[in-house]
Amino acid sequence: MPFYDPDKIEILIDGPTIAQRVAELGAQISADYRDVGGDLVVVAVLKGSFLFLADLVRAIDLPIEVDFLGLSSYGSSEETSGVVQVTQDLTRPVKDKHVLVVEDIVDTGLTMQYLLDNLATRRPASIKVASLLHKPARTRVEVPVHYLGFEIPDRFVVGYGLDYVSKLRNLPFIGVNVGEGPPYPA
Ligand code: 5GP
Fold first, then answer.
1. What is the pLDDT of residues 33-92, one digit of tens each?
2. How many A from CA of 30 to the centre of ligand 1?
3. DSSP 45
4. CA angle, 124 then 128 then 130, to 5°
């Protein structure tokens, strides 16, 4: 038995499909920023984006900087509260730099809207968004996603960085919890 219960996790996007798409996004980002001039800082939103970040930055063929922003909007429930809390701030100013925000998923859009407003006050040269996933059915505010991995249906997904009550971020694919109870052995 693996560390998760395969009967309770349905694979939505498998590892090779994720890898292929992340490579495409990296190539696109490299081409778009190659001749822009100035510094590019990739700002990863913790915790859910950490695997996407790790794979994406290695697919970007440019001398980027990386920084982290901790945000929490969910608590331990599956429904967004709309209240966003900064749990860890950037370590360096982004003034006059090109900022590429890397997020795991844009669901209602509330977290990203908060983040974009917050970053704009720091006067970067530009701001763009890369999100691995987007659930269009749940949109409450429209936010720009310049580099999107996959559109997904309105299901709660886990794995490849995304958690099930803090666990299963280490699944190498994106899955959906099916059936009763937690998708891992007690
Ligand atoms: P939003 O503010 O767009 O509604 O939600 C953004 C955050 O909610 C994401 O960064 C992520 O942490 C969490 N979230 C939204 N949908 C899901 C999901 O299907 N699975 C998991 N694990 N987290 C989600």
1. 999 999 999 999 999 999 999 999 999 999 999 999 998 765 555 556 667 888 999 999
2. 27
3. E
4. 140
Return the bridge partners of 131, or none: 103, 148
Identify the CATH class of 17-151: alpha beta
For a ligand 1 pocket test, name from 72, 74, 160 the mutation site with the most ligand atoms within 8 angstroms of its C-beta: 74
What are the residue boundaries of the structural domains of the chain, listed by start?
A: 17-151
Over residues 167-178, the mean pLDDT reads 96
pTM, to two decimals: 0.94
pLDDT tens readout for residues 134-152: 999 988 999 999 999 999 9
* Annotation marks residue 96 as catalytic: no
Distances from the Cα of 154 to the Cα of 10, 29, 72, angstroms = 14, 27, 20
Exposure class string for 19-39: b at 16+ Cβ within 10 A, else e:
eebbeebbeebeebbeeeeee
